[in-house]
UniProtKB/TrEMBL annotation:
UniProt keyword annotations, A-Z: Cell membrane, Membrane, Transmembrane, Transmembrane helix
Species: Rhizobium aouanii
Membrane-spanning residues: 12-34, 224-242
Membrane topology qualifier: Multi-pass membrane protein
Subcellular locations according to the entry: Cell membrane; Membrane
Keyword NADP: no
Domain of life, source organism: Bacteria
Protein name, as recorded: SURF1-like protein
The UniProt record lists the keyword Flavoprotein: no
Signal peptide: none
Annotated family: Belongs to the SURF1 family.
């Protein structure tokens, strides 16, 4: 085999290495750019939710029309009036400010006979049953103001336990099952929830205003990570090539 035959593979190796480095660099930069785009999207979403929460409440009919048109109703302020059906409340297992208990979801019967499930707020574990907080069982015509919340189409994750309907303990907010379990017809139930605001209830329970808007925004950190790895790759390759060039000159 001639020197030319030996030289050909040696020439191809740096070319192949260079191509792989460029591909890796392109991937890292693309990932960083994607995270920057996600950052702008998340900041816009957070600002939009804050604006919705700060806006004046609108009638329930407006939110219904928006939902029917496929609009985003999440966290929009709404007001509704009706009578609570206290003997049909459902209990969602929750933690509020470090305390374990339940969110109380009570059907609100509207003037037209339809039903709106309202998350009236948090009660400690020992106050799960209505007789432990009778003063908070509001009767007569009530007006509730709160945030519209979309119903879930399915269980959020396989790690979430199945709802224990027999014990009236829900681990995920299945509106259809909540309604069915207390004998309410699906057709009569408005297809979203409302989280009541922090207006105090008699004797302090349930504690309203429990809506938690937790949108992690770590995209800037991720962007720096990907761009940083791209910069490290460039530096490592540059040092490697510099050393090879210096070694070749010494030979």
């Amino acid at each position: 085999m001639t020197d030319i035959d030996h030289a050909a593979p040696r020439r191809r190796l740096p070319v192949l290495t260079g191509i792989l480095v460029l591909i890796a660099l392109a991937i890292l930069i693309s990932l960083g750019t994607w995270q920057v785009e996600r950052l702008y999207w998340k900041e816009g979403l957070i600002a939009d939710i804050a604006a919705r929460q700060a806006a004046s409440p609108v009638p329930l009919a407006d939110i219904e029309a928006m939902a029917a048109a496929g609009g985003d109703i999440e966290y929009r302020k709404v007001t509704a009036a009706g009578r609570y059906i206290n003997n049909k409340e459902r209990h969602f297992f929750a933690t509020w400010r470090g305390q374990t208990g339940f969110y109380v979801y009570t059907p609100l019967e509207l003037a037209d006979g339809r039903i709106l499930f309202v998350n009236r707020g948090f009660v400690p574990y020992d106050n799960k049953e209505p007789e432990m907080r009778m003063q908070g069982q509001l009767t007569g015509e009530q007006t509730v103001t709160g945030l519209a919340r979309e119903k879930l189409a399915r269980k959020p994750s396989w790690v979430v336990p199945d709802n224990d309907v027999a014990k009236n303990i829900f681990y995920w907010k299945d509106l259809d099952v909540m309604a069915e379990s207390v004998g309410l017809e699906k057709a009569s139930v408005i297809p979203f929830f409302v989280d009541a605001d922090s207006t105090p209830n008699p004797a302090g329970l349930p504690i309203g205003g429990v809506t938690q808007v937790d949108l992690p925004n770590d995209h800037l950190q991720y962007a720096f990570t990907w761009y940083g790895l791209a910069a490290v790759l460039v530096v490592v390759v540059a040092i490697s090539w510099f050393r090879k060039g210096a070694k070749a000159l010494q030979q």
